[in-house]
Amino acid sequence: MIRNFFRMEICRSFLFVLLISIFVSFTLAEIRYTEIRSDAHPIIPFDEFGFTHTGRLELNISYFALSDSNPNLDVSKLGFFLCTRDAWIYVLHQLEDGKILCPLNSELVKAVSTFKSLNGKSSFHIVYQQTNVDQYTLVFANCLYQVKVSMNV
Predict the structure, then answer these.
(1) Which DSSP letter does residue 94 get?
(2) Of 96, 110, 132, 133, which has the most beta carbons under 10 Å away?
(3) Residue 86 — φ and ψ, nearest 5°?
(4) How many helices (H) and strands (E) does the chain have?
C-alpha cells in the first residue's frame, strides 16, 4: 500500500512538471559588454549570436562620442547591423567592386540601427526583433572615415 502511494505521488509530480514545462517557454540569453575607445576602424565585429524565429536583440549604447565635433556629420553612416557569414562574403565583394561604399547600404545586411536616431544624445536603447532562424554576427559600421568612435555597448 505504501509502495503504491509513492508510485502515485511520483506520477503526480511527473505530470505536474510536464504540465508546467508545456506552459513555460524556455529562453536563453547572453549579455555582453564591450568598451570601444577612439576606434577608427570601418568595421567592428562584436559577436555571433544564434536566433530562433522569436529572436530578440537588445542593444544598449552609452557614452557615445566622436572625435569630430562637427554638428553636420552624417551620423546615418554609423550604425549596427546583423549579417550571416555567407552574406558577409558578398558584402565584402560589393565593397571591393565599389557597388556600395558602406556595409549599411547593402541589401544583404539587416540594419539594427543607425546613429541618426541619436539626435545629439550620448546613449540609447534598441530592441530588434529577428524572425529569421540563423547565426548572425553583430557588426558596427563606421563609414565616416577618419572619425574615431568611443562608446560602451
Answers:
(1) H
(2) 110
(3) -65, -45
(4) 2, 8
Tens of pLDDT, residue by residue, the chain (153 residues): 555 555 555 556 555 544 454 544 455 556 677 898 999 999 999 888 888 888 888 889 899 889 998 888 898 899 999 999 999 999 999 999 999 999 999 999 999 988 887 777 788 888 888 888 889 999 999 999 889 999 998
Rounded Cα distance between 61 and 86, Å, is 27
76 within 8 A of 116, measured Cβ to Cβ = yes
* Beta carbons of 87 and 108 less than 8 angstroms apart: yes
Could you give the CA distance from residue 130 to residue 54 in angstroms, rounded to a whole number?
7
Q: Which three cell numbers stand for residue 153?
A: 555597448
pTM for the whole structure: 0.76
